[in-house]
Each structure stands twice: as C-alpha cells, then as structure tokens.
Amino acid sequence: MRASFGLGHVLLHGDKAVGDNRDRIDAALDQEFGKLRTIAWCLPAESHFGPALWAVSTTLRIIHLTASFLAGTDIYYPPFGYWIASWIAAPGVDPSTIAPYDKTGIDPASWEEMRSFRSGFLTVHYWNFFALIVAILIHIAGVVVTELREGGAIVSAMFSGQKVFDSEPRDDVGGTS
C-alpha cells in the first residue's frame, strides 16, 4: 500500500493498481473494480511512476498558484489583484484606481505589510522553480538510462510514434504487437 497523494486517489492495491503484472491496463476489468481513476494516476502504465508524476504536477500547481498571487501583488491582476489593491489602498482611495508600479494612493504601512506577506509566496515560488528543474533533469537522465538499457527505441518513438521491439512485449498478452 502507498500513501494517498492526490484528491480522489484511494488506497487500493498499491503497486498492483494497474494489474498484476504492472505493465497491462485492462480498462473493462479495472473499471469494474473502480480502479480507472487510479490507473489514470499511474500512467504511464507502470505504477511506480505515480509518485513522480504527482511530484511534477504538484510542483507545477504550486508554481501556478504562487505566480497568480504574485501577479496580484505586483500588477493587481485577477484572481487576487482586487483583494491586494483593496488591502494597500489608502483610506478613501478607490482600489480600482491603483496602477501597477505607481505608489499614488497607496498606504505605506499597508504596502509594507503586503510585501512582508508576499515574501513567503515568493520564496515558495522561487524554490519550486528549482525543484521543477531538478525533476526535469531526473526525467532526462531516466530517458537516457532507459534508452541505453533498452537499446535505442524510446527517444525515436517519442518523435515517430512507433517503437520497434526486439522481442515480444511483456504486456502483449493478445499477441497483437
């Protein structure tokens, strides 16, 4: 069993969520047992990729959310821009009149309070960028290792869409390779 990392991801059978041999997806059978959501979580078909995909998608979501907040604090863009402009506007100033990079109509104390609050989001955004870069480098290293181990079919398949097999694939139970 592995821990639940995503919304809607239930603890089913851990590494066996995509079938007993971990390389085969039987949509009809897995749908019958309510496992299609877990299968989508674990794509590509090997379930040990699930945590890696979760890590990359979570990093991207964090970058997106923090960027949305930072856009609100810097140039007052939605979805947080009006809230930020209302926060830093001087008393009696309409928040919609506050312009980016112009301190006219801004309360200095509220501005400093907002910038202090913003710093945590900026730090999270900054370090998640580097976490994403590390994940990309690990992905590239994994592709290179797989390419060398399998004999040169994975990268060409990414471009052509066709993979040439030296032997019958392990998950080809129907003989339709």
How is this structure best described in words?
This protein is an all-alpha fold and 177 residues long. The protein has two domains: 1-45, no CATH class; 48-160. It is 55% helix and 0% strand. It contains six helices and no strands. The longest helix has 43 residues, at 108-150. Mean pLDDT is 76; it is low at 1-25 and 41-47.
Q: Report the biggest beta sheet as strand number plus sense, adding barrel if it closes.
A: none
Binned, the helix content reads: 40-55%
State the separation between the terminal residues, measured CA to CA. 32 Å
The tally of structural domains comes to 2
What's the quaternary structure here? single chain
List SSEs in N-to-C order. Answer: HHHHHH
**Average pLDDT, to the nearest integer?**
76
**Count of alpha/pi helices:** 6
* Total number of strands: 0
The shape is rod-shaped
Q: Ranges with pLDDT <50 over ≥5 residues?
A: 1-25, 41-47
Structural class: mainly alpha
* Proportion of residues in extended strands: under 5%
Helices and strands in order:
Elements: H1 27-32, H2 36-42, H3 50-75, H4 81-88, H5 108-150, H6 154-160
Helix pairs in contact: 3-4, 3-5
What characteristics describe this protein?
177 residues; mainly alpha; 2 domains; disordered N terminus
What's the quick description here?
The protein contains six helices and no strands. The protein is an all-alpha fold and 177 residues long.
